[in-house]
Amino acid sequence: MSGLIGKKIGMTSIFDENGKNIPCTVIELGPCVVTQVRTKEVDGYEAYQLGFDDAREKNATKAAAGHFKKAGTSVKKKVVEIQDFESAYGLGDVITVDLFAEGDFVDVQGTSKGKGFQGVVKRHGFGGVGQATHGQHNRLRAPGSVGASSYPSRVFKGMRMAGRTGGEKVTVQNLRVLKVVADKNLLVVKGAVPGHKNSYVIVQK
Predict the structure, then answer these.
(1) Rounded CA separation 47/79 (Å)
(2) Among residues of the chain, what percentage have pLDDT more than 90?
């Protein structure tokens, strides 16, 4: 799957030719530089390592600075490997948002917003325990029973409970590309993508 690294700018909405208001997400996509070429002979698989978003060279380790210097580019903040590219590229080649076109369907991968420690109602969509009457003054958002008594005398693994929510890798599939603004490196896709504003995403088709 051909793909690029980008940054989520935020959400907006546009009108289609029928006057329908469509919610969409704007992504700053590329330009990405090929910082390493993986081959079957050397690495056992084929892939391109892409770098995105310039970083300050003084903050990079000598190993990282040397790695990017070999590719003939500046130090990058985000580096990702993507396999199964449709086209062939060489070390130091720049790939832009022109890789995508209006009407394409893409998969967008990002890290979901972290929401901290949450209860079962917010985390798993539980309905709470019963009604507010009959003495249940503090059970509206409780998880209820979590296991049997004498057998199995334990709680099964995977039981849905309260805990940390969000901050996980999430992929949203089959989002339609509504617009490509090549001169500003912008990609507009229909719907929402995971992550907060200015978070890194990977867009693949």
Answers:
(1) 13
(2) 80
